[in-house]
Every structure is written in C-alpha cells, then in structure tokens.
Amino acid sequence: xxEVDFYVLEGDPPPDPQQFVCRLLDTVHRRGGEVHVHVAxxxxxxxxxxxxxxxxxxxxxPHRLVGMPGRAPVWIGWQxxxxxxxxxxxLADEVPHFFSGFRRVLELVPADPPGRDRARARYRFxxxxxxxxxxxTFGGGx
Length: 142
What we know:
It is a single chain. The protein is of the alpha/beta class. It has a 7-stranded parallel β-sheet, with helices on both faces. The longest helix is centred in the last third of the chain and has 16 residues. The chain starts with a strand and ends with a strand.
C-alpha cells in the first residue's frame, strides 16, 4: 500500500510552489530516488521542464518528459507511466488512477484557497481508502 505525504505550504509569504517542487525533486534525486511527476497537461509538463533547467545555478536535476528516449531519475508526464515506480509526485488537481502502483505518493498543498480545497479533497480520498498519511509543513518563502 502506498504511503502518502502532503507538503503544506504556508506562511507570509508562503513558499513559491514551483520553486518548492524543484527543490523537492532535487532532494529526491540527491538521495538516489526515482520519481514520476504527474502534471495536468502537456503545457504544465513543459513549464516544469523549463523550470528545472533554471531553478538553481548550483543544481541540476536530470529529467525527461515521458516519451522521450533515454533514462533519467525524474520523469514528467500528463499520462500514466508505462510502468509504476518508487515515488509519484502528483501536481494535478485529481488523484491519478495509477497512484497505487507507487510505493510513495507526494502531494503539494499550496497556500491559495482553491488549491488548498483541491488538496483537501485528495487528502479525503486517500484517508477514506485507508492509506497511511503524513503531513509536512513548510512556511515563509522556502
């Protein structure tokens, strides 16, 4: 059964969600993990791809868009992966139907009210199905 971690962004100002995602992926990569990042659509995939190239002058997160040739520890896609993996970072509004094939699921809880409401709905989805849930809070421009 997948373990689900929620990363709550809060504070004044709250951390930038895109920057937080890049740092989170950098951390997973440095620890030797592989992650599939599920985004809402192709435009979001290309936006994250571009952000990962430029988020930090001192870091590089090897990544590829799903469907590209080669190997990378970070895959970004808006469709189900060919095969499940170790970690799924869900950046879409809904829980993807393939989430249970992963050992860990990471969910972002942005500070804006609509984003927070969508994250609460995903939290309820996992809780109602008995998945183990953890919450990590990050604040103040991280």
